[in-house]
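User: Show me an example of a complex going from sequences to structure tokens.

Assistant: Sure. Here are the input components:
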Amino acid sequence: MNAFQDILILVVVAPGLIFAVFALLWLLGWTPSEHFLSGITGLTFSACTAGVAALVWKITSASNITVTFGSWFAVGSYHFPLVLMVDRLSVPFLALAAVLSGLIGQFSATYLHRESGFLRFFLLLHLFAFGSLLAFAAGSFDLLAAGWEIVGITSVLLIGFFQQRRPPVENGLYVFGIYRACDIGLLVGIFAMHHWAGTASFVGGFPTLTGARAVIVCLLLLLAASGKAAQVPFSGWLPRAMEGPTPSSAIFYGAISIHAGAYLLLRAQPLLAQSVLASALVILIGATTAIHGTIVGRASSDAKTSLAYATLTQVGIVFIEIGLGWRWLAVAHILGNATVRTMQYLRAPSMLHDYHQMHSAVGGELSATGKQIEEMLPARVQLWLYRWALDRGHLDTILERWVIAPLLQISAYLSRQDCTRTPSPTTIRPGRAVQVFASGPAQRSN
Amino acid sequence: MSVPGWVLRTSFFTSASVAAPWLAAVVVIGYRRQARVVGCIAALLSAIASTVLVWKAPAGESLYETLMLLFSCLTFGAIVLLPRRDSEVGTIGGILVLLGSTLLAYSTGNLLVLLVAWILSIVPFLWAGWLRSRKWRPMVGLLSSSLAIALAIGFMVARTGVSSISHLKGQSPGGVVAFALLIVAAIFRKGIIPAQAWVADAAESGPLVPTALLLNGHFGALLVVKLIVPLFPETDHLFPVLSYLAIATAVFVALRALAENSPRRLLAFLALSQSACILSGLESRTAEGITGALVHWVVVTVSTVGLFGILRLLEVRFGENLSASKHLGLAEHAPRLAVSFAILGLALVGLPGTLGFCSQDLLIHGTLTTHPLTGLLLPIATAMNAVSFFRLFSRLFLGKRRTGFTIMADALPRERWILAGIVLFLVLGGLFPNATVIEHSSEVDVVDEAIRPSTTLTGPRATRTTIRPCNPRTLNLSTTSIPAPEVEHAE
């Protein structure tokens, strides 16, 4: 094992180790000070960033770096390969995750100073960094799925960071439900790869799948990617996720987590290239999401939601690029979008202050930027479109009415059949079924 | 000074592990003081004896010894975790009787002894009045399962005149009637559809921790592994029915849990849904599925006992009228209980980094290989369970802080250490699953040997792999007719 392989292991493992040690010590009764915690965080991510820089230098001058540990577990002929791999695709994402995690850590040390959940936030930040680094450095879809799930759960826990308020908690549950539903695609897709190709590892090349099998695997991965990247029809969770603290919104929904879906598709690009149907579907979903994002974003009344939809629009365009096979354009687009959005999210709490400063500097209000494109539409269409955008494309309503409410009604029916006394289960009334499960649109706030 | 030979015999340690809790139960009931201390010592003695049994067991034949060790340790943890309010003579005595019976059932190779252990395990629930209100369904479930297994064993012994399980292996003693009765017993005891309702009733009306231990003895799965599969190999075409019923139970109960607001019932549904997956994995007849089922057995047992224990601690601290219909904000009062609850619950539904992830991964692979269509329902059920669990967690622990409490204790030191131990076990097991998985994968032979020669492993590599029966430690796969294909890679 050479030095670069050691560096790769350290980069991935370090945040996870910090999380594990601090979590265990806390569970046993010890709480670190803010100063100590933020210092350790800065040190960890500085080391990670330096490590990733070394990996970048190595990748530009030589081939991929691969670390094979064997199998995480092996049973019969099935094994879970524990392989880390850094190539030209994963290294930009690794750099993004390491640099932005450190940046967010430093920002949050001040932003969340004396906040009751300070330790919780930093522990989850470390866990998230571990999950994302693991997903991006994975040499197989199995390991990618492990990192993917960790990113998902930290995302949900940070949405509910302000746990005393009901909307963040309920929205966290809603996002968790969407994630889990879409992750079925990833799990079954990986199984299909093992079943048909004998492996889900992409070290040394992508597992060979052709014909209908390739299409099925692509569609399953697309389901997972769409859920993670908030593509239509799963876009409804993104504004709900803005309930979390701003630094976590920045790194999750401006930079890393929202682009993880695109990374999955980029990884599956060789397979995607074989399936016209799947590629067309990726383009269609991306285009629909981009249009949806830009229209709904225009009707958003708060900064973070507007930014979320701006990100969503760009991610939709990234999906189009992936569908068209423009791989490196998509990577460049992701890097640019992630960096800019992170900066915008972090400045969002100070936006009014920034505007005030700009107005003072120019001696009045800023000049108008020009006409909005929607003004070219007839007034009636504009009104309809405005109402459509206000309800965020009715996506939540459709999901709630046609998926969540029927499931809850079936469950409540079964409960009534099951109970021999006054039923304890939830009573479902038309119009508020979804509030049982999560808060409705009226309860969203940012 | 030399050690007497009988002390070193396996039977001595088996007897010691079973007898210690029963003797302790007699002491507790007679002495009526220091019940928790006596209970802990007895469970610890059982655990030590089980450890020796695991150590002495031949390679690849330590399945039941491992389960004995697990259950003893879990009972020790449960007794320590019990709130003081529940640490009275009846509860501790009942738990000890349950421990002895469960260990006897795991260790025995005799049909009649198994029947005695089966019946003894439900005795505490019958005599102690543990199942207070709405008790007819648990009673019917437990008594029906006991009646069915009694009839089945009676029929088998009457027809063959033999009560040794090893002698009856592969002979289908009692024919279809005995087979059907055993299936009925497994269905009732495990809470498989249509007999699923008693589990939630038992959890709601009975004492939480003993009920969790009763459910996690997994006598239904034990019956499948110990009797149904080895004794009736030619009825293998009927096994998929059990698998379909198990998957149907997993989905039905997961669906049922979505709108449930009673934390006790909700946790019981989650435990039932997840444990139903064990049967489908065992039936999958793939190495992945069987190993996944055995590891999942461990995960479900450990995490649900922890979850029920935490729920009981919450009830004692915050009142027994906890509900998932509103946010209670208990994490502000008990953050360590909240974190432990979250980790155990997420491990139950397959959080990466815990042992649950490995077991779910293997189970899904195994079940999908054998039943591609119905197997798809397994990840769907798990996803619904995850949502239900997260809803319960967020309703109990998150939300606005409750006021009006004068004393709001987080996990006490003894509770903290036990919970940390459980969490560590699940996390370390997940990080280094080979220590657990490979240990159990050798036990696949035990199940597979019972299925042979009528079945071989199925799946993508079905035609080229069969499991060898006498296999040391690791699972060896022999190449038979078709060589393993090269994995082709695209550019």
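The lines above are the inputs; the final block is the predicted structure for all two components together. Residues 394-430 of chain A form one domain.
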